Amino acid sequence: MASKTTIFEDVRRGMIPAHIYNDEEIFEQEKSKLFSRAWIFVGHESEIPQPGDYVVRHVLDDSFIVVR
Questions:
Q1: Domains of the chain, residue spans
Q2: Is pLDDT at 2 greater than 70 in this prediction?
Q3: Quick one: which of 46, 36, 68, 47 has its CA closest to 59?
Q4: pLDDT tens digits for 15-66?
Q5: 19, 39, 45, 48 — which has fewest CB within 10 A?
Q6: Cα(20)–Cα(3) distance, rounded to whole angstroms?
Q7: Above 90 in pLDDT, residue 5?
Q8: Helix or strand (DSSP H, E) at 10
């Protein structure tokens, strides 16, 4: 596997190595360092226009019900 320096150089050039998309360790790091610190878009108000309308979303290991 490439070193972190090599990967960073590739990313700076706009070339993301394919293994990054499937690497479980990288995904676990993203879950803890990115997803847990930021708001996650789960829907637009147009998806639930009427009172009582709802959508169900799954984000990582959690499920959400968004209700108007």
A1: 1-37, 39-68
A2: no
A3: 36
A4: 888 888 899 998 999 888 888 888 889 999 999 999 999 999 999 889 999 9
A5: 39
A6: 12
A7: no
A8: helix 4-12
Is the whole model's pTM more than 0.70, yes or no?
Answer: no
Task: For residue 20, give both structure tokens.
Answer: 């990054």
Query: The tokens of 13 are what?
Result: 């050039």
Which residues, including other chains, have CB under 8 Å from residue 65's CB and lie 6 or more apart?
Answer: 54, 55, 56
Burial class (CB in 10 A: 0-12, 13-18, 19+), 44: exposed
* Amino acid identity at 1: M
* Alpha carbon 41 to its chain's center: 10
